[in-house]
From TrEMBL:
It is an enzyme of class 2 (transferase). It catalyses: L-glutamyl-[protein] + S-adenosyl-L-methionine = [protein]-L-glutamate 5-O-methyl ester + S-adenosyl-L-homocysteine. GO terms for molecular function: protein-glutamate O-methyltransferase activity. It comes from the Bacteria. This is protein-glutamate O-methyltransferase.
Length: 281
């Protein structure tokens, strides 16, 4: 069976309301494919039966499962490489000069999925900061399942094969049965929390670097603008924002300017931009 227009509309409205993700017409097959395991897990014969029951008897827990299933969780270690090269060769040397008084950096992986980006950032900090420096990596995601996986810090052989050099696998992981687990020495610098970037953000200390990659592409322009405005309040005045290769602030939020960062580009808040003070907590 395939999704009816009414069923697709129900799901798309739910996802739009709860996560601000836009599911355009033509995504019916994707929605059905993602929801088949969810339907089976709750004992429904198929997706149609699962959705019909949910419409008759609204259940926040099952709605949450739909959100989790339809949140894109494509990820890998050091994904797209260039942002990490820019971080190593351009951003960190500049921040080391300007943060000498505190010798501490805060980095936010704002859509961390199952944790590979956040831990890749931690490895980058570990290998490129001078002795005596400290760092904090915070990973956030809208999916409860992904946050749990990231906190577990265990990955299959297939997952560690996706972009992770062998030398770093040996140094920063330990065997956990058939899986690989991030060492405690690296994990102590990384934390994860559930967060919807389109909702009012909680009070947090500002960040020196924010990775907000491959997130904005799922939002409409108004939502992109809201997210960028919220993020700007949490980025230090001389901090760096990295977006995905297909994303930009241009034409959406003029408070940012695009700057060269090695062979890629990043974004910084324009001097004098009225973005509000960073919230502290």
């Amino acid at each position: 069976m395939t999704l009816s227009q009414a069923e697709f509309n129900f799901v798309s409205q739910l996802v739009r309301r709860e996560a601000s993700i836009v599911l355009a017409p033509g995504k019916e097959y994707l929605v059905e494919a993602r929801l088949i395991p969810v339907a089976r897990a709750v004992g429904a014969a198929n997706v149609n039966e699962f959705l019909a029951d949910l419409q008759r008897r609204p259940d926040p827990a099952r709605q949450r499962k739909i959100i989790d299933a339809l949140t894109t969780n494509e990820t890998s270690w050091f994904r797209d490489r260039e942002p990490f090269t820019a971080l190593t060769e351009v951003v960190l040397p500049e921040l080391v000069k300007s943060r000498g008084a505190t010798r501490k950096l805060r980095v936010w992986s704002a859509a961390s999925s199952s944790g590979q980006e956040a831990y890749s950032l931690a490895i980058t900090m570990q290998e490129n900061l001078p002795p005596g420096w400290n760092y904090e990596i915070m990973g956030t995601d809208i999916s409860t399942e992904m946050v749990k996986r990231a906190e577990t810090a265990e990955y299959s052989q297939v997952e560690v094969n996706r972009g992770l050099p062998a030398a770093q696998l040996v140094q920063y992981f330990e065997r956990a049965g058939a899986h690989w687990r991030i060492t405690q020495a690296l994990r102590r610098n990384v934390s994860f929390r559930l967060m919807n970037l389109t909702a009012p953000l909680p009070a947090m200390q500002p960040f020196d670097v924010i990775f907000l990659r491959n997130v904005l592409i799922y939002f409409d322009v108004a939502t992109k603008r809201t997210v960028l405005q919220n993020v700007a309040k949490l980025l230090r005045p001389d901090g760096w924002l990295f977006l995905g290769a297909a994303e930009t602030t241009i034409g959406i939020d003029d408070n940012y300017e695009r700057v060269a960062a090695g062979r890629t580009s990043a974004y910084r808040v324009r001097s004098g931009a009225s973005v509000g003070a960073a919230r502290r907590g």
